[in-house]
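Review form for a predicted model. The reviewer records the input and the model, then writes brief findings.
Reviewer: anonymous (R2)
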Amino acid sequence: MSATLTPPRRQRLQRSELAVPATSERFFVKACASDADVVFLDLEDAVADAFKDQARRQAVEALNALDWGRKSMAVRINGLDTPWALRDLVDIVSECPRLDMVLLPKAGTAFDVQFVAQVLTAIEREKGRDKRVGIEVLIETSQGVAHAEEIAASSDRLEAMIFGVGDYTVDMRTNDFVFGTPSERYAVLTAPDAQGVRHRHWNDQWHFALARIANACRAYGVRAIDGPFTDFGDAEGYRASATRSAALGFEGKWAIHPSQVAIANEVYSPSAGQLAWADKVLGTLEAAAAQGNGAIGEKGVLIDLAHAKLAHSLQQRQATIDRHTGGNADRR
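Model under review:
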């Protein structure tokens, strides 16, 4: 019996993912002109119930009529527990050849992803669709975080898992009013210093969820994407949030405002310093290998083949960015 071959997961650049309400046509042109790697048209939270059908029609028209360039295009459908989800899937996938991914909100178990994957397969077969539609999911409930590994392994259509901090905040009952920002309440109080002063050190209340999602994604070859930072007037805070998740292994972040796109693209790209380090490390190891050494000390730091893997990874990441941007990426 021959083994069944499953298509490989699609690799795509997703440093920034710009959210666009499907009912806001004036934002469509701005999104087209943006430097976002991914744009998703939102049929869920950004659309009132009475306008769901209208938003779906507008999303179909926008996907088909506008020039989105090299961007990957997604649509966030309504949740599977709503009366709109199935029609969202059928209409968008059937009528939009430009569609790259379906964004599934509130994924709680592997079954949620597998159900959507099976519906996509049925639509593609019926319509003879050439381009296979991928799935990205929002992990935005305690159930979703609890089943992160199961979800990551659920389907070969699954491309990315996104931390949905907004609904997760609600589900965890933390009562934070601005989603994605740190909380002064999640802090530790130090012992008195020499002057008798005690200091408060803020902690990251989302570290557990972020780390679990990132690990699950890396274990199963799925992209880890950080979610929204809703105070879009705080560019410094957005950058700090993006830098934190990048340090955990995330490779992109949502942008709820066009002003956040450039920051995300920068943070989730290799810096000029990192690329210079990669070139230097590979040169150093090549010289060491010529002498029969697989590792070498450099200024008191051991450099070995693990560093070579990291260096190659940085170079490959930059090559992917250059292909996507035509070599016009801003390297800082």
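Findings: Residues 1-7 have pLDDT under 50 and may be disordered.
Further findings: DSSP finds twelve helices and twelve strands in the chain.
Recommendation: see findings above.
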